[in-house]
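Table S5 (text form). Sequence records supplied for joint modeling of the two-component complex.
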Amino acid sequence: MGQKVLLSSKEINIILHRLACQLLENHLDFKDTVLIGIQPRGTFVAQRLVKILREEYKVKEVKAGFLDITFYRDDFRRGDKPLEATQTKIDFIIEDKNVVLIDDVLYTGRSINAALTAIQSFGRPKDVELLTLIDRRFSRHLPIQPNYRGRQVDAINNEKVRVMWKENDGKDEIYLIDR
Amino acid sequence: MSNELSVKHLLGIKYLKESDIQLIFETADHFKEVINRSIKKVPSLRDITIANIFFENSTRTKLSFELAEKRLSADVINFSASQSSVKKGETLIDTVSNILSMKVDMVVMRHPNPGAGIFLSKHVEASIINAGDGAHEHPTQALLDSYSIREKLGGVSGKNVVIVGDILHSRVALSNIFALKLQGANVKVCGPKTLIPKHIESLGVEVETNLKKALNWCDVANMLRIQNERLDISYFPTTREYTQQFGVNKKLLNELDKEIVIMHPGPINRGVEITSDVADSKQSIILDQVENGVAIRMAVIYLLASKIKQ
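The corresponding structure-token record, covering 489 residues in total, follows.
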């Protein structure tokens, strides 16, 4: 099993800043915008973006939540392992808000499809955008594309993108792993 | 911890491991969050069909299961013996086999005979959930009771729980004893000697016939209903006398030097096991038990369904 570094800590940081700027351009004061990190690993991206927006771009209030999509997935009972739920934490109103769904890797699009269904359990958003740190283009099963992408990657099917976060894995780094 | 149950059916708490109970509780936590949303439904089980087969009357268990199934988007069919061919002499296996030929994946069954679920699980392919089999077990009730204690007191291990009332005829009592002991609680049973089974101490519980002493000892009192329909002979002189000795009222609770948690699996005979002011007091978690019942049943159904492979 080989692996190569796709993005270093410094590169991840630059990309996150660029994504934060793109969000700022479109959502200004974030008064009617909410950021939703998709559990489990989209939440790391969302938290970093919130931190940058608050601390470096002085946005007063950025509402952010976590969305667990386990019960909305279309592969329940298809995998070898049972699906394990994680926490959903959305303590604000979604109705009529601009929702930005955030995930680390966009691959087949099925998770985002599940997230689009799941988010509607919290109300009817005005519109929904998608932000992803890594976009594995050419791997999509559904017609889903990101509005904001960090880096586009051409990975063949037996390759896997692994995103590591300081909070969870001890360092920020993104690998392309050949399984 | 494994994220898979060790069993294919939920026939009784006796067949579960402690880790199964923890997994059910953690999954129920997620479902509790789901059922408090404005849209309380998830699409997980949209390709699963569940038959609720009730050979004995039930209101809250049946409603709770049906609601849990619908909130998981399962297709649900209901069957009650009183309106069926069972009256014409059809056997249990024939009845269930007929229902299963309609491509049913899971069966929730209540039956007056102990062991009916175990018997059925040996003859059919579908997952069986025991919703009460005679005086044997009522596993989902015991799970929701323990879950409610965990929610109220932060855990079950080390807590003192007394089960008061008709222990002899109660499937709730037996399942509760198994569940509480498995999680490390201390358990006493309390009631008239005639309604306490012989050798119950072999399950690791103590017997106390003085209600006041039992209440002084416990953190939680689980009050059981006097099941008049199961009492074929007289086990105590009069209901009034039973109430005087084993009924809980506000005065009795006020005399304790601590606040205990009051539970009741329902339906309540108000004024018999507990008075209305106790049932409706802050100490009572009876309505929490009902709410938790839906989350627990969603968790059980979800976890068992994940073992049915496509």
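Note: Residues 286-305 of chain B form the longest helix (20 residues).
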